[in-house]
């Protein structure tokens, strides 16, 4: 590790200690909207009864075998703050390392919840308004004067989704395998006409969240990875959470796989980025976070439990049309509404959900393409809620 990197880490740790001291001294819920927020964890890390743990582990193992998943990790935080966390199967298949609740998996679009929370905190601090035009920070982006931050957060801006660019997979994973993408390269390479005028429809757009990441950097004057670490990862103790725009993952991170005709195909370029340098860096603020089941569960419970942004900001995030609010999906299972996000990208699929009616949080992370983690999360939720 370079001396400069050690200095950066010491600086971030010092900021984390400062945040904790501020939380103890202020003791006010209003501080939750500031950079030195008194972020509180919604879990005590207490373990659940052995019978409950055994039931949930059995479901996890059964679901992994049923869906031919190489590795899976999950966590459930109960209303009393106790947590069940477990793994099943393998992270990287080639060395036989088991998947655990601490194993980092690509969580892809769950990254959007962190970006959204940062935008909402900055709004609470008066540094921007979500109804501001994009042109306040990115005046040269096409039609920026008519696109608001709210529309980018809600996927109603009409901005084209760059993952749908013709030949995206060939460009990213074949032609430019091993390439470290810059933000401007992403916008330039995958430039495309808008789908509709701002506010005239819904179109899920990863490009919109690239733009929001640039706004955060412009407002704060900091690299996005540092903003997320200082505001969220360090205060909440998310020790196995990484923003791949800032650097690679530990070698123990889960590797992504496809499963075709009964054969597993590893999607890797041999680096410690997941799913490779090109795939990780082209995702940036739309999906570059990798994290563990335990960390994502703590994040989900803290965010949707009201410990990260103001009550007003959270209400805006959860006000939805087309099943989407601001950086937040919603759905209903067995009559219970939940809020959270899913993430899927090149060998990984993940889901995180918070049930406001019961205070239950469920997270499932997998390293297999072309599946949905939602049915697994639902099975765990059913067992946990009875």
Write the layout of secondary structure elements.
Blueprint: H1 3-26, H2 50-66, E1 71-77, E2 83-89, E3 105-106, H3 111-124, H4 149-154, H5 168-175, H6 183-189, H7 206-220, H8 224-233, E4 242-243, E5 256-260, E6 263-267, H9 277-287, E7 289-291, H10 293-304, H11 311-317, E8 329-333, E9 336-344, E10 349-355, E11 360-366, H12 374-385
Antiparallel strand pairs: 1-2, 1-11, 3-7, 4-7, 5-6, 8-9, 9-10, 10-11
Task: Supply database-style keywords.
386 residues; alpha+beta; Beta-lactamase; six-stranded antiparallel β-sheet; three-stranded antiparallel β-sheet; 11 strands; 37% helix; 15% strand; globular; disordered N terminus
Quick structural overview:
The protein has twelve helices and eleven strands.
Q: What report would you give on this structure?
A:
The chain has 386 residues and is an alpha+beta fold. The chain is built from twelve helices and eleven strands. The chain has helices at 3-26, 50-66, 111-124, 149-154, 168-175, 183-189, 206-220, 224-233, 277-287, 293-304, 311-317, 374-385; strands spanning 71-77, 83-89, 105-106, 242-243, 256-260, 263-267, 289-291, 329-333, 336-344, 349-355, 360-366. The protein has a six-stranded antiparallel beta sheet, with helices on both faces. It has a three-stranded antiparallel beta sheet with strand order 3-7-4. It has a two-stranded antiparallel ribbon with strand order 5-6. Strand 9 and strand 10 (349-355) form a beta hairpin. Helix 2 (50-66) runs antiparallel to helix 12, helix 3 crosses helix 7 and helix 7 (206-220) packs across helix 9 (277-287). The chain is globular, with a radius of gyration of 20 Å. The N and C termini lie far apart (48 Å).
